[in-house]
Design brief:
Blueprint: E1 11-14, H1 43-56, E2 68-72, H2 95-100, H3 106-119, H4 121-132, E3 136-140, H5 151-161, E4 171-174, E5 177-180, E6 184-187, E7 205-208, E8 211-214, H6 218-225, H7 245-259, H8 263-283, H9 293-304, H10 308-316, H11 326-333, H12 335-356, H13 367-383, H14 388-407, E9 411-414, E10 421-425, E11 428-432, E12 453-459, E13 473-481, E14 484-488
Parallel strand pairs: 1-2, 2-3, 3-4, 6-9, 9-11
Antiparallel strand pairs: 1-12, 5-6, 7-8, 10-11, 12-13, 13-14
Helix pairs in contact: 1-4, 3-5, 6-8, 9-10, 12-13
């Protein structure tokens, strides 16, 4: 059965599900990665949701019309997968992979994908049933599922769906954008976030030593190498790991001192390794063949319902990657403050040791130069603020006016920021489908953060039709509250609190 992706009357979109492996219960550490427990999986509600959107669109849809479902990035979370193969000989594992999760080579990425799909069989079954009804599904690659760039990983998803050969073409994977019905541009949105963008989505691979891997964004390297070793911090809610000094101290004595008292050392070595890998991967050249560049552009254009010219133009408006600014990365990791503090200790020790050569003084005098320099250190530390939230706030406004013009559409739909929105920006209708990820305001996971929104684009009803546009479509932002959904009004941004947005670098 042929499915025409160029035309759509009913389009639904969700993003940022962050499906990952199930974390086994740890009686000694009951709060350790509690947000990854099976009880917080969305598999069951996802099936009810798919049934709901079919019923929701029935009044405006002919029986033979099919639905277009856009899974707009970060549907999977490869960064959080730390499970290793049962057979240690299956892969030649580096010590860091054993501690923080497998690298982004194709075989290892496919293994992580299979782990996720195995733990989310209910989600897979629901999506399979949806496609078997004739509907189509578009996966747009985000930053947490950037390993979807591997053909083998995409194949693993299609194989898990177990579709008849005639319906496998109903599932499509797009590099970073998709144009629906020539009126709406879908992008995950990470390409306008310097911490989370894929530096080159046309050629996302790099050669690292003898291995070919997907180039990881700085934020995702940090999530994998730091947060996977600090299981009391929820990567889906950035306010749990982007805090001021006083908040960190309070958090340490309330939660960490009993569970992970050596967290400072864990953070320090993990941050240094993150800095090294971010700069190493960031500056490596992309793996590409000049003879196949035009074919690659044409393939992306075909899958995204765009022209090759549009593909090139949209790529040109992406922001500059953060790894080209090492100082910026060091500040985000707090490495600059850690190294400065170590320098103060070293200089103070050297000063006291020098004086000790000519006078019999106690080594406790080392506290004098340390105390003298502390005000300057504290002033510097407090003057540095994370730019992550700033990236979140500015990403939509810096891009929609230009991207909509390049794609020749009047509507743009993003994800990535984890807060839902429906408003006009520079004359362009902007929607954000928020997140369904397991975000909580507390470590005990009793206070859910945010809502579970989705976007519905449908044909205009008679009372909504504009003069001269009898066949145009209108968009709604709705909140999914099983087993129903409620419309959210335009011009209202629900739960818009950048300080509490979920991780894009995270």
């Amino acid at each position: 059965m042929k499915n025409d992706f160029r035309r759509a009357r009913h389009t639904f979109s969700i993003s940022d599900l962050h499906l990952t492996e199930a974390e086994p219960a740890n009686p000694k550490k009951p709060l350790w990665k509690l947000y990854k427990s099976r009880k917080f999986f969305v598999d069951a509600t996802f099936k009810v949701f798919l049934d709901h959107i079919e019923q929701l669109s029935e009044a405006d849809r002919n029986p033979d019309e099919k639905i277009e479902l856009i899974l707009n990035g970060d549907i999977f979370d490869f960064d959080s997968v730390t499970r290793l193969p049962d057979d240690p000989k299956q892969f030649n594992l580096h010590w860091l992979e054993k501690a923080r999760g497998l690298n982004a080579e194709e075989s290892k990425s496919r293994f992580k994908m299979e782990v996720i799909l195995q733990d989310h069989q209910g989600w897979v079954a629901a999506l399979r049933e949806f496609v078997l009804k004739g509907h189509r599904v578009v996966f747009i690659i985000g930053n947490h599922d950037i390993e979807l760039h591997w053909p083998g990983v995409q194949k693993a998803i299609v194989e898990a769906l177990n579709l008849p050969e005639s319906q496998r073409s109903h599932v499509r994977f797009c590099e970073w954008f998709y144009i629906s019905n020539q009126d709406t541009l879908f992008e995950h949105g990470n390409q306008y976030d310097s911490y989370s963008l894929c530096s080159n989505p046309v050629h996302p691979l790099i050669k690292k030593g003898r291995k070919i891997v997907v180039r990881m964004p700085f934020g995702d390297i940090a999530n994998k190498l730091i947060l996977n070793g600090m299981g009391m911090l929820n990567p889906h809610v950035s306010s749990q790991y982007i805090m001021g000094f006083k908040d960190y101290v309070r958090f340490f004595f309330k939660y960490l001192i009993r569970v992970q008292p050596g967290i400072i050392l864990t953070w320090f070595w993990s941050a240094l390794v993150t800095l090294f890998h971010s700069l190493l991967e960031g500056f490596l050249p992309a793996v590409k063949d000049p003879l196949t560049v035009e074919r690659r552009i044409a393939e992306i254009a075909q899958k995204s319902n765009a022209s090759p010219r549009t593909v090139r133009a949209l790529k040109e408006i992406h922001v500059h990657p953060a790894h080209f600014n090492p100082i910026k990365i060091m500040q985000e990791l707090w490495v600059d403050r850690a190294l400065l503090f170590l320098l103060i200790l070293l200089v103070s020790f050297q000063m006291v040791s020098l004086f000790k050569l000519v006078a019999d003084i106690s080594m406790f005098w080392i506290l004098v130069p340390i105390a003298g320099t502390m005000p300057f250190f504290v002033f510097y530390a407090q003057s540095i603020t994370s730019k992550l939230d700033e990236e979140v706030v500015q990403a939509p406004s810096r891009s929609v006016a230009v991207s909509s013009r390049l794609a020749k559409v009047s509507r743009v739909v993003h994800g990535h920021t984890h807060y839902e929105a429906h408003r006009m920006v520079d004359g362009v209708e902007l929607l954000n489908s928020g997140t369904w990820s397991p975000g909580f305001k507390d470590l005990e996971c009793t206070k859910p953060y945010g809502r579970t929104p989705f976007v519905w684009i449908r044909p205009a009803r008679p009372e909504e039709r504009l003069e001269g546009k009898p066949a145009h479509r209108v968009a709604e932002l709705r909140e999914w509250k099983e087993p129903h959904s409620l419309p959210l009004p335009m011009e209202q941004v629900v739960e818009q609190n950048p300080a509490d947005t979920a991780s894009k670098s995270g």
